[in-house]
Structures are given as C-alpha cells and as structure tokens.
Amino acid sequence: TGTGEAGSENGGDILYDKKLKNFDLKVEWKISKGGNSGIFILGQEVAGWPIWKTAPEMQVLDNENHPDAMLGKDGNRKAGSLYDLIPAKPQNTKPYGQWNAVEIICFKGTVVFKQNGATVLEFHLWTDDWKKLVKDSKFPELNPDWANVAKEGYIAFQDHGDDVWFRNIKLKSLD
C-alpha cells in the first residue's frame, strides 16, 4: 500500500509453499524511502499471528530514513541484521532505491547472513547462547516460546505496508 504498517491490511506476507530445514536462499531487494520489510526463515503459520511472532528475520530497511535503524542495540535493527538480536557487520547496505544482494544459508541450525558480497553475521539456533540472546530481547514478551524456533518452516517476505521489491530469488534445498 505504501502507507506503512498501519495501512497494510490489504496486503500480506508472501510465503514459499513448502517448509524447509536446510537451504540456501539468494535474493536481491530494494526498499522505498523510509521503507521497512524483512525476510523470515523457519516461520510457522499460527492462526491469528503474523509470521514474525514465530521466525527469525533478516531486516530489510531504509537505514537513512526509517527510525527503526536508530532503535534496538548497536544497530541490530538495521538492514541485514538478525532483527533486534544481532547487528549486521559490516553495515554495507545500499541506500533506498538501490538493489542489495543477500544470501541466507541455514544448515542444521547454523545460519549465515551475507549482504552485498560480505558475511555480515552468523548464529546458531537452539544453543544456550541462542536462548540467552533471545531471553534478553523483546521477543519473549510477544511469544514466550520464540527461542524454540522450529527445525523446519516457511521462508517469507514481509508485507510491512511499505513499497519493497524482491527479484532474482533463488532457493536451493540443502537436504
């Protein structure tokens, strides 16, 4: 809708129609001025819940014009970050209106985010470190079971109400 989160009731997230465990996802994205979106992995469909309540997210954001880039801790809400948990380093996101190339590799609980040719973060699901990271975030307030990310789930592109484009989507199962 281009009207932000409050105006997104006519859209909806786009889910890949099969659950995956281990995969390599490559995609290019660009965002509108002040735009916000995301790419979710291992998401679940739960009646009455948006997918973000069940899934880790690679943030898609106009870092220069969206206030979320200044919130959170150490840049963990900027584009390429594991939203609200781990900042993307280096922060190499291109400005709004330009294409960013990202890759998300998920294999047996190890997840790697790459952006514009650089590995920007790595994390390990279901470990004690993962549970502590989630415990110290906002997610347990929204879903007490959020740290127990499913071992398989959907990939989804978020409808956050802002204009966002995805292209050259390539998905390879690693099972």
Give your account of this protein's structure.
The chain is mainly beta. Helix content is 7%, strand content 34%. The protein has helices spanning 128-135, 139-142; strands at 14-15, 23-31, 36-43, 57-61, 100-107, 110-115, 118-124, 154-157, 164-173. The strands form two sheets. It has a five-stranded antiparallel beta sheet, with no helix packed on it. Strands 1-8-3-4 form a four-stranded antiparallel beta sheet, with no helix packed on it. A hairpin with a 2-residue loop joins strand 6 and strand 7 (118-124). The longest helix is centred in the C-terminal third of the chain and has 8 residues, at 128-135.
What is the structure about, briefly put?
With 175 residues, the protein is mostly beta strands. The protein has helices at 128-135, 139-142; strands at residues 14-15, 23-31, 36-43, 57-61, 100-107, 110-115, 118-124, 154-157, 164-173.
Layout of secondary structure:
Layout: E1 14-15, E2 23-31, E3 36-43, E4 57-61, E5 100-107, E6 110-115, E7 118-124, H1 128-135, H2 139-142, E8 154-157, E9 164-173
Antiparallel strand pairs: 1-8, 2-5, 2-9, 3-4, 3-8, 5-6, 6-7
For the structure shown, list the relevant keywords.
175 residues, mainly beta, five-stranded antiparallel beta sheet, four-stranded antiparallel beta sheet, 2 helices, globular
Stretches where pLDDT falls below 50 for ≥5 residues? none
Radius of gyration from CA coordinates: 15 Å
Average pLDDT works out at 92
Morphology call: globular
Count of discrete alpha- or pi-helical segments spanning 4 or more residues: 2
- The fraction of residues assigned to DSSP E strands is 25-35%
